[in-house]
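Final report, results section. Input specification for complex C-07:
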Amino acid sequence: MLFQLFSAFFRIGLFTFGGGYSMLPMLEAEVVKKHAWATTDELLDYFALGQCMPGLIAANVAVLIGYRQKKLKGAFFSMLGVVLPSLIIITLIAAALKNFAHLPLVQHAFRGIRAAVAALIFGAFIKLFKANVLSALKPAQGKIEKGIKSHLQLFLPPVLCLCAFILITFSPISPVYIVLGAALLGMFFLRGCEI
Amino acid sequence: MSDILLLCWEFLKIGLFAIGGGMATIPFLAKVAQSHPEWYTLEMLADMVAVSESTPGPIGVNMATYAGFLVGGVLGAVLATLALVLPSFILASLVASGLSRYKENSHVLSAFNGIRPAVTGLIAAAFYAVFKIAVFPDGALNLLSLALFFLVLLVSMLKKAQKLHVALYIALAALMGIALKL
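Structure output:
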């Protein structure tokens, strides 16, 4: 059983490109269809839970499912399985790149790649901005009957976003404190509002 | 050795506070690059993102392995990765054991209402840092890099391009970099 958990999550780690939602089809194939460790609904619950916990989503989901099967041992082997493909593949690539990094051809290639990476991160930012900040500016959405949001609830999310950007870019403060501060502000001032 | 211990401590913090998936680790890793330039540079961080996006495995784990390797070889890679997932192991085990009805906890929900917009701002800062080193490679504006940035951005925003794999953009950008001698 422990080996099954390990090998299932090893395959999930190996065939996941990019993390996040791209994990779901592979998770479903292994956890629901092949081993019946959870139903599809339970898996989606674990996934949603893994997203709104500290830590990486992939590791959180592996630990949640592994623990339900075989307690701490199951959690450990599932987690080990999901990180091992990355460990092996990335170590090999990083070691190889180290040997070729000085070649002009590789340097030109990476300068091109960096422009693409900047665009990809910008794309990720836009997606998050729409989901976490713009949606907060909309007055209470129809599906939840919680009355009208206060001005604070409307404007705190964009202010938090802007402050996080400014503090990280122009001060040496660690992002750790920004996340902690935002969590505290959320607890006090964003109670019961759905972003 | 003290470097490796410091590295583990940094990744423990990232594992605990980088909430919201692999991309959320980038602002933390960028801060590490700025405070420990002898470990890796922002340029190398951008390369890490490219490799992590276009190889198998969750992005966050890939980034940790890569950064750990740069700092301390294979041992660094293993320890950084384990340090990164240790908070998940402890917290997710506690949640799975049912010690806390975590998700129904209203304090947790409202805390996340604050964390999500802040993480969005952190990602914006990570973008700004990577944009600067990508488009101002030698301290001066490189128009070809800027054009390539906008090209990738426009193509990735096309509806028809949504299903293309990230690795494809990276490979094409590498070829453009070689062709344009960036």
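The CA atoms of residues 4 and 72 of chain B lie 7 Å apart. Chain B has a mean pLDDT of 89. This concludes the modelling results for the funded period.
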